[in-house]
Amino acid sequence: MSLRLSDYDYALPEELIAQRPLPRRDDARMMVLHRASQQIEHRRFAELKSFLAPGDLLVLNNTRVMNARRFTSDGAIELFFLERVGERRWRCLVKPGRKMRVGAMAQLTDNTAHVEEICDDGSRIVSLDRELDLEVGGAVPLPPYMRRAAETEDQERYQTVFAQVPGAVAAPTAGLHFTPEILATLPHTFVTLHVGTGTFASVKSENITEHQMHEEQFTISPEAAVAINEAQRVVAIGTTSVRVLESAMRENGTLVAQEGSTRIFIHPPQQVQHVDLLLTNFHLPSSTLLMLVSAFAGREFVLRAYAEAIRERYRFYSYGDCMLIL
After folding, report:
1. Order of all β-strands in the sheet with 233-237
2. I need a surface site. Which of 27, 55, 108, 127 has the fewest CB within 10 A?
3. Please, what is the Cα angle at 40 between 36 and 45, to 5 degrees?
4. CA separation, residue 16 to residues 22, 211, 284, 288, 317 (Å)
5. What is the pLDDT of residues 68-112, one digit of tens each?
C-alpha cells in the first residue's frame, strides 16, 4: 500500500500510445489478470464472453461525447465547451487565453461568444447569441496524448456504439471495444456518467490523499438499479462505471435509481466494494484512474502487468488495448 504519487509512475515508450483505432473495434488484445493466483494471460477482447458466468451482468456507461471543440471563423481561437452553466451560457477552455479576456468576443461560424468571467482554473464563462447544439458541427475533443487533430473517422470511433446521452468531453474508453454483435450476446445494463476533462488532470500532490477530484454527473435508471441488484456478479466496463457504482451504492449493498454527482477518489488502501470484475484500458502514469485500478487489483500486481504490457508491445490509452481483471 502506498499513498505516494511516485509509486504510481511508470515509463511508457511514446510509440505505444495508440494514435488511431484498430480497423475493427473488437480487434484489441486483452490482458487478463487473475487476482486470486496473481497470474497474467494474454488473450483477445473477442474472448471476453469465455470469462463470464451465468448471472454476470455488464454495466456500461452510455454517455455520449459532445463535439465540444470549436474554432472561430478565422481559426485564430479555439473554444472547448465543457459544461452548460445557464441559458446560452457555457464554461469553456480557450486557446490562446490572452485573446479571450473579459469583454472579448469570438465569432464562430453560426454564433458569437462573449467572455463574461475568467474562472480560478483559467476557464471562461461565455454567453452566446443563440443556443449551442454540440451534436452539430464542431470536432470531437481527442485527448491531448493523441498528437493530431480529430478526423472524420474519430466522429464514429471515439464514441461507443451504445452512446446515448450527450454530456461527456471524453469517451468511456473501455466501452470502445464493443460491437453491436458482441454486446447483443452479453447480459448488460447502462448507467450514465458524463466524463469531464478532469479525467486527464494530473495529480500534483506527492501525498495522493491531498488531490481534489473533479465533479462528474451521473444517472442510474430504475431498470438499471433492478438489474444490478439482481446480478450474481457485476462486471464494470470501465473506471467510470466503477465510480458510479461505488458512489451510489447503499451501505447494505443495494442500489436505487437516482441522479447525482460524484467526486469519489478511489485509491489504495481502499477497496472496491461493489464490483466483481473490471474491464479497463491502460491508463496514464500517476493518474487517478491507475490508482483506482490499483485499489481493485493491488498496486504491485497492476504495475507488474503494465511492465509486461510494455514488453509485449500492447497499445496504450484511449484507442489502445484492454485489461480484464478477475
Report:
1. 39-44, 29-34, 322-325, 277-281, 233-237, 56-61, 188-193, 216-220, 258-262
2. 55
3. 110
4. 13, 28, 12, 20, 9
5. 899 888 888 999 998 888 999 999 989 898 888 999 998 988 889
Residue 296, pLDDT score: 97
310, three cell numbers: 510494455
Task: Classify residue 246 by burial, with Cβ atoms within 10 Å: 0-12, 13-18, 19+.
Answer: buried
- Do residues 278 and 230 make contact, with C-beta atoms less than 8 angstroms apart? no
Q: Where are the alpha helices (DSSP H) in the chain?
A: 152-157, 180-184, 222-230, 239-248, 288-297, 299-311
Which helix H or strand E contains 27, and what residues bound it? Answer: none
Res 110: pLDDT: 83
250-to-12, 109, 218, 230, 254 alpha-carbon distances in Å: 38, 47, 16, 15, 5
Q: In angstroms, what CA-CA distances link 236 with 26, 80, 118, 240?
A: 18, 29, 38, 8
**What burial letters (b/e) apply to 249-281, b meaning 16+ CB within 10 Å?**
beeeeebeeeeeebebbbbbebebebbbbbbbb
Q: Within 13 Å, how many C-alpha atoms sit on residue 237's CB side?
A: 29
Grid coordinates representing 148 are 493530431
| Backbone torsions φ then ψ of 158, nearest 5 degrees | -95, 40
Question: What domains, with CATH codes, occur in the chain?
Answer: 5-65+142-325 (3.40.1780.10), 69-128 (2.40.10.240)
- Residue at grid coordinates 490572452: 98
pLDDT, residue 200, reads: 67
User: What beta strand segments (E) does 63-205 contain?
Assistant: 63-65, 69-71, 78-86, 89-95, 105-107, 112-118, 124-128, 165-168, 188-193
pLDDT-flagged residues of the chain (< 70): 1, 200
How much is the CA Rg of the chain, to the nearest whole Å? 20
Residues constituting the chain: 326
Q: Which three cell numbers stand for residue 262?
A: 460524484
